[in-house]
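Data deposition worksheet. Section B asks for the primary sequence of the deposited chain exactly as it was used as input, without tags or linkers unless they were present during the calculation. Section C holds the resulting structure in token form. Section D is free text for depositor observations; keep each observation to a single sentence. Incomplete worksheets are returned to the depositor.
Section A, Depositor: J.P.
Section B:
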Amino acid sequence: TDLYAQAVRQTSLKAVHERMIAAIVEEGGGHSVEFLTQLRDTTRDPTRRRALQKALLRTGTANAEHAGEPKESQKGEVYVGSCDGQGAYVILGLHQKRLAASSTIVDLCIRVSEDIRDGFTAPRQRRSDLREALERLGKDDSIGFIRVPWAEASRLVVNAVKRTRDAGKEIPADARSAVNLFERIAASEGVGQGGSSEVRVDATADASVEVVRDLLEQPLYDYWFFDAGDLGGVGLRSSPGFLQSKEKWIAQARERLNRPTMRRKLVGMAQHMALWHHYNGDASHARTMSALARTTEHDMANSPLLLVMLEKTIALSRGVSRLSRQPPPVAPGG
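Section C:
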């Protein structure tokens, strides 16, 4: 509205004033009413005054018609991606303004325990454009998208903004417009920082090593292992050496990876996937991931999640893509 307000006062742009006023009406809201009222009261042209009065009536009618509608119906749809092995995921949505003929695609890439990595907005998009983007991303079996309420997606963004700023970083320039949109939605929905109210910790959930092995066999978890950067950062080889047993390497890795930064990442990954599975209707997997987040936070060295990810790391170093197909473990001292 502010940009249109400046432009519509310029006589040199008189030829497009009508289209600008139509755009202001389409945007709606209190600011639009306030600006159109001010413009109507200050113009001396009777024809223009009548046109502005009609615009005001359309704006007021639109605001009244939508005031009682559920907020979700006004905003299009938004999807949250599964989390990769480095703790990154994507939020992808189609935000629709009331009465607008087209919508805006919003995209953010977020790291669960760190910052907002990047993002963008693309105006004048349609639902078919969103579907095409989801299908393109979904060709990789390790990425899954589920639809969530806008309030839930906004909470994820609000938390990510806080982490980014707490780390002394700036929101990437390309991501600012998307972040601003989610922050506005969060404010309108009364969403604050913190965990999701949808996912409850179940103390009876089965988060045994066997259950976690089965869960991490799913394609969604193909990249849940430790890469050379993770291991080299704590002085570890990417797999057991020729004279080192698997058990000794895992014990060493458990000790060295047990650091605050890695703990926050693994806990964040488990929490995110608990939310993802919840909205995907996988209650059992959601409870398992929620329990893993809790056990990893309180005792990371003995976390089943840490152990299974280390087992996957070894299996991949041997050219095996699934734990169920890896060679039998090497005997201690072998």
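Section D:
The beta strands are 77-81, 88-95, 103-111, 116-125, 145-148.
The two ends are 72 Å apart (CA to CA).
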